[in-house]
Amino acid sequence: MLKAVLFDLDGTIIDSNNAIFQTYMQVAIRLGVEPPDIEVLRGLLGQPSHLNLPLLFGDNKDARPIYNEVVVKTHENLPTLPHVKETLEKIDLPMGIVTSKRKANAIEVLGELNNYFTVLITPEQTVKQKPDPEPMHLACKKLSVKPEECVYIGDTVRDYKTAMNSGTGFIALVDKGSTAEQFNELNVKYQVTSFDMIPDMIKKFY
Questions:
Q1: Fold adopted by 4-15+79-205
Q2: What pLDDT digit, counting tens, does each position of 35-74 carry?
Q3: Phi and psi angles of residue 121, each rounded to the nearest 5 degrees, phi first
Q4: Residue ranges per domain, the chain?
Q5: How far apart are CA 89 and CA 66, in angstroms?
Q6: How many other CB atoms sit within 10 Å of the CB of residue 60?
Q7: 124, 106 in Cβ contact below 8 A?
């Protein structure tokens, strides 16, 4: 019995993947190093910046302060994906967000959409991060539901692995994150190509 719906944030609710790519590229330029390949960055989607910065720039002490400065500009006035607000209004279940974006940034980009969600899980609240199940299990605990009573909706293979590790259902939103081919290679059964397709897909989990 489905009792709650959990969402990723970047690339699922907020159209932010390109902004994320631009952030790391601008950090590289400011540091005077070669910008990372776009496919490398795509593979890091859904992972928090405190893990990505060392992977991309080693122990460069300037990376974090430059990132903190750049991310404010690249993430200003980010749009939602199409049909988000009206679709959320159709979902008659408790909803939450499990994201790798820091809390302050998540609240800022969500704006009034934050009112639709009962819980918001960000990296500051857990020791381990996606695809480890800790963030998802914390969301389930706060919603007073079991993992198997939830479905997680995300746009990357990392999100899928998070759901599988956590014991929740999963719906892939195939847009600007991982490709349909990547999801198909993993035999991801439930896929949508537009946010407004989610309510009908959720019914398959009842």
A1: Rossmann fold (3.40.50)
A2: 999 999 999 998 899 999 999 999 999 999 999 999 989 9
A3: -105, 120
A4: 4-15+79-205, 17-74
A5: 38
A6: 14
A7: no
